[in-house]
Amino acid sequence: MVNPIIRVEEVDKEYGKGKNTVAALKDINLEIAPGEFIAVVGPSGCGKSTLLHVMAGLEQPSSGRILLDGVDVTLISERDLPKVRAEKIGFVFQSFLLIEDLTSYENVEAVLWPSDELKKESQESMALEVLREVDMLERRDHRPSQLSGGEQQRVAIARALVNDPPILFCDEPTGNLDSKTGETIMKMIAKLNREKKMTVVLVTHNEELTKYAKRIIRMRDGAVTSDR
Amino acid sequence: MNFRILLKSIKFAFRAKKRVFFFIIVYAVLIIWVAKSQAIPALGIPSWIMALIVSTVYAILIAQFRRRDIAILKCLSWRNSEILLLLVGEVVLVSLSAFLLIFQVSVEILGLVAYFEVIGPNTILAIIQDLITVPAVDLGMTMLVIVAFQIPGLLLAQYRAMNIPPMRALREE
């Protein structure tokens, strides 16, 4: 295997203390190569979303190591973690997570506002370019409340792509969409994997979506039960 | 300092019209009271203490109202210092707008008093002038006091914003 872009080593994640401890992840070991499209599937509560959050550095594991492109995110301080996430990761969430007071364009561009290196003009052109890619340029001045679920998810995808990260984490990206719109969104994600060679980690309980992935990881009760 | 975020935050604040307009009025009333060094009627609290309380509460309220947005921005890799700028933008907008409102109203009232050649303390215009108009120097000094009062509030707001984990955005949906 080429150098993995994501390496998960002996990761455990527990919630609660003492008698109330719940093990969400148990001894997870994974290696994901650049450009792979992986689907993590399993029933609700099996720990697949927790695995994604831990891999993305949104939550710290109780033990073990997570390496993103060679960087151990479990050793990075809270202060420096955002920079690593900004450079390496794009997120697409089930509930879109768009900011209601911002337009589609501003939601996408907001990812770039903290950047000191990019000039205003560059930020604007990058945001417009990704909105064009997801076919949302015409709706750039609309607020999330004025968009359909599918359109909101396309804006969320544009936002995930705007800083050109090598990894795309998708947490139930079609969960709030009808089947036809969901298929359009999944084709868009598959195209990104194929054409931009983005590493895609898709978390879903929907077996139907595994057809887009080249590798399927099954989970149950916080543990990986199959990986093929 | 990232001035782009600061400018965007002012634009962002304008979208929360109801809250912003309400606090512009509250700040305007506070500026008048603080400038005139009067106690708050019925409560008997010195106006500067009330200004300190309101400024602090407002800064905390912004962090509270923007909780979801802050969590989303943290998911999008914003740092705490950048999120603080977002809060500062709204506070700056409200303070400055209240200052300009009082300035404009004072000028208008003084203009009317001069125009109608109001003489004597018991005319309506004279009473309004006495109640609302703030002399320029007092207004400037009060603005500085109000700005200084924002600092503890903003520090508290930053502390609250720092403690909002990005995961909150996911859990609340």
Rg of chain B (CA only) = 19 Å
Order of helices and strands of chain B: HHHHHHHH
Q: Which radius of gyration of chain A do the C-alpha atoms yield?
A: 17 Å
Distance between the termini of chain A: 14 Å
- Broad shape of chain B: elongated
SS-derived structural category of chain A: alpha/beta
Question: What does the average pLDDT of chain B come to?
Answer: 84
Note the main sheet of chain B: none
Number of helices of chain A: 6
**Mean pLDDT rating of chain A:** 92
Shape of chain A: globular
Biggest sheet of chain A, in brief? 6 strands, mixed
What kind of assembly state do the chains in view correspond to? Answer: heterodimer
CATH C-level class of the domain at 6-96 and 165-227 in chain A is: Alpha Beta
Residue share in β-strands of chain A: 25-35%
Strand order of the largest sheet of chain A: 6-7-8-3-9-10
Which range does the strand content of chain B fall in? Answer: under 5%
Largest interface (CB within 8 Å) is between:
A-B, 26 and 23 residues
Number of helices of chain B: 8
Q: So, the CATH homologous superfamily of the domain at 6-96 and 165-227 in chain A?
A: P-loop containing nucleotide triphosphate hydrolases
Task: Describe the structure using short key phrases.
heterodimer; A: 228 residues; alpha/beta; Rossmann fold; 6-stranded mixed sheet; 10 strands; globular; B: 173 residues; mainly alpha
List the helices and strands and how they pair.
The complex is a heterodimer of chains A (228) and B (173).
Chain A: E1 6-15, E2 22-32, E3 37-41, H1 48-55, E4 63-68, E5 71-72, H2 81-88, E6 89-93, H3 104-109, H4 120-133, H5 149-161, E7 167-171, H6 179-196, E8 199-204, E9 215-220, E10 223-227
Parallel strand pairs in A: 3-8, 3-9, 6-7, 7-8
Antiparallel strand pairs in A: 1-2, 1-4, 4-5, 9-10
Chain B: H1 3-14, H2 17-35, H3 47-65, H4 67-75, H5 80-115, H6 124-132, H7 136-162, H8 167-172
Helix pairs in contact in B: 1-5, 2-3, 2-5, 2-7, 3-5, 3-7, 5-6, 5-7
